[in-house]
Amino acid sequence: MTHDSHAGQIIILNGAPRSGKSSIARAIQEEFEGPWINLGVDSYNAMTPRRYLPGIGLRPGGERPELEELIPFLYAALYESIAIHAGLGLNVVADLGHHDSYSQPLGILGDCARRLEGFSVLFVGVRCPIETIMQRREVAEEGRETLYLRATDDVPIPEPVQRWQDEVHRPGIYDIEVDTSVLTALECAEAIRHRLDLGSPEPSAFERIAGGR
Hints:
This is Chloramphenicol phosphotransferase. The protein has a single domain, classed as 3-Layer(aba) Sandwich (Rossmann fold), CATH 3.40.50.300. The protein is 41% helix and 12% strand. The protein has nine helices and five strands.
């Protein structure tokens, strides 16, 4: 099934917290032509009731099994919203942290990919070495009480941070990958624009993920 040529372009940025996804999303909104609507984890969690947070931002490791039955529905609703926006000709950039490390596998990424069948989707792996993520966390934490776990001499990398690093890029099928320790957000956006200009590969990453049931 293919949508008409008036449909918007969809870019999904996937990576760990503090990997630089939201900065790339902002650069895309500011630099690319036309309206780019940001439907990512932060905007979606702003709509999610507090007692159901972190919602789709639930970390790897099966920490909140009681939330897990809701998560597939939240993701499904988000991706249907992405499809509606694109179907109306609006471009969408979504910065997310997909993983399947719940108390049991939920297969959410495959379901999401199937909901965007027929749309032009560029799936971007936003990579960042864990050392850089730790530095960014330290900077972000200075001067405020925080929910984030701090590095200590005994535990240089907190376990949840390591889990994100291990789980967020599975299966690791992307149309393009960027490394935010090497490129600025603007340079990442330019690389993504260049990839868009090349036209879609056959099959795209999301087509391959959708087919891998």
